[in-house]
Design goal:
35% of the residues lie in helices and 17% in strands. The chain contains five helices and five strands. Strands 3-2-1-4-5 form a five-stranded parallel sheet, with helices on both faces. Helix 3 links the parallel strand 4 and strand 5. Helix 1 packs parallel to helix 2. It is globular and about 50 Å long.
Length: 133
């Protein structure tokens, strides 16, 4: 897998996989930071006002895709609903395009302190406890 510069927060060209809420948010964040953004989704999502809004902002939105666009991308952002084993993700890795999760992109742009809680049990209780401390 291609490695990303952990300090990088700007990418000349970025590909966003997934047009759901997190993919749209990733596209807006990248665009706001000066990236040229291409967003792809397998679903047509025609008439989705969020996709129309992204197009109006300058995002190259491609819906109903069966294949990824050709070309070089500085990074690819993968929405949570797309598994790491997806043919799209494997294709990007084979092309040498650095891949990161949408959460990673958000973390890189976050300027506040971050507390991450993981695990299968007790996350809500732990977050509540930390918030009240």
């Amino acid at each position: 897998m291609a490695m990303l510069d952990r300090r990088a927060s700007h990418y000349d060209t970025a590909l966003v996989l997934g047009g759901g809420a997190s993919g749209a948010a990733a596209a807006r964040l990248l665009l706001a930071n000066g990236s040229r953004v291409v967003l792809v989704d397998r679903q047509p999502l025609d008439g989705d006002p969020a996709m129309a809004g992204l197009r109006d902002m300058g995002v190259d939105v491609r819906l109903g895709c069966s294949e990824l666009p050709a070309g070089a991308f500085a990074a690819a952002i993968v929405s949570p609903g797309i598994p790491a084993s997806s043919p799209w993700v494997r294709s990007l890795e084979a092309r040498g395009i650095p891949v990161m999760a949408e959460l990673e992109l958000g973390w890189r742009h976050c300027r506040s302190r971050v507390l991450a809680v993981t695990g299968s049990n007790g996350k809500s209780t732990m977050v509540k406890l930390c918030a009240e401390s």
